[in-house]
Design a protein that fits this description.
Length: 143
């Protein structure tokens, strides 16, 4: 190999090329596009806050339910041990089955999350649905 080519070849091995990967480039593009109008986020945050506040208050109005305010979720997690005892249900699972059959309201027993004596109630639906569901729950749960 002539000396000129050898120097050129060696020079090529001393050069490091740095480039941003396609995934990073795509992520940056999307992030830039999201920098636009974000008013919808504030609107949804306010709507979920309203639903949260309503559900917590409505659940606390049901005999045997005790619900603390959450922070940043779309679930309420009321303690229902007193309602389980008052209704002579075997557990939170029995109360969930009762609410489904008698009030036509679906909840998840806290025992599914390692928290027996609690329910998980979603408020990721309309205010009208929440008002109707909590009204039915209150009517169905024994005082």
């Amino acid at each position: 190999m002539p000396l000129g080519r050898a120097r050129t070849a060696r020079a090529g091995t001393d050069v490091t090329v740095v480039a941003t990967g396609m995934q990073v480039q795509s992520s940056l593009k999307v992030a830039g596009e999201m920098a636009g109008d974000q008013s919808c986020v504030a609107e949804m945050t306010a709507a979920y806050r309203e639903r949260h506040d309503f559900v917590v208050a409505a659940l606390n109005d049901i005999p045997g339910f005790e619900c603390r305010a959450g922070d940043g979720t779309f679930y309420a997690f009321p303690r229902v041990a007193a309602a389980v005892d008052a209704g002579d249900f075997e557990s939170d699972i029995g109360l969930v089955e009762f609410l489904l059959n008698e009030a036509d309201v679906a909840c998840v027993p806290g025992s599914a999350f390692g928290a027996p004596g609690y329910l998980r109630v979603s408020f990721a639906c309309s205010m009208q649905e929440l008002e109707e569901a909590t009204r039915r729950m209150k009517r169905a749960v024994p005082a």
